[in-house]
Amino acid sequence: MFSHVMIGANDVAESKVFYDAILGALGHKPGVIDDKGRCFYFTDAGIFALSKPINGEAACHGNGSTIGFAASSTELADAWYKAGLENGGVSCEDPPGIRSGGGRQLYLAYLRDPSGNKVCALHRVV
Q1: Which residues contact 88 (CB under 8 A, 6 or more apart)?
Q2: Which of 52, 63, 71, 78 has a CA-to-CA distance to 105 between 20 and 30 Å?
Q3: Cα separations (Å) of 60 from 7, 23, 52, 69, 72?
Q4: 85 forms bridges with which residues in the sheet?
């Protein structure tokens, strides 16, 4: 359904360290900086990107917005969370764990990135 997600970053280099760590914990390659200073993470399923806002204003998080990254196990979700905390992320929401809703069980871990964006690792528990 989605081709890409791009979020604002006040300091792309600082955010790249954070996203290289959390996405690396899920098996993704480090981001690539283009000639405009944007950072791209290319996968077969889509693209995740970081950019300073083009209007020149500060990047800010979307209130009520969350970017979710798929984790193939609870262990990978925990590694994602740990890598984020060690690389500039801040814990938010409840601690990582199982949440139930809609007849499903999901293992979720939430962080705020260095620019305040809310991100999540999600593992669908079978």
Answers
A1: 14, 17, 18, 113, 114
A2: 63
A3: 9, 21, 10, 20, 29
A4: none
Token reading at 9: 């970053």
User: Helix, strand, coil proportions of the chain in percent (round to 5)?
Assistant: 20, 35, 45
Backbone φ, ψ for residue 117 (5° rounding): -70, 140
Cα–Cα distance measured from residue 93 to residue 63, given in angstroms and rounded to the nearest whole number: 14
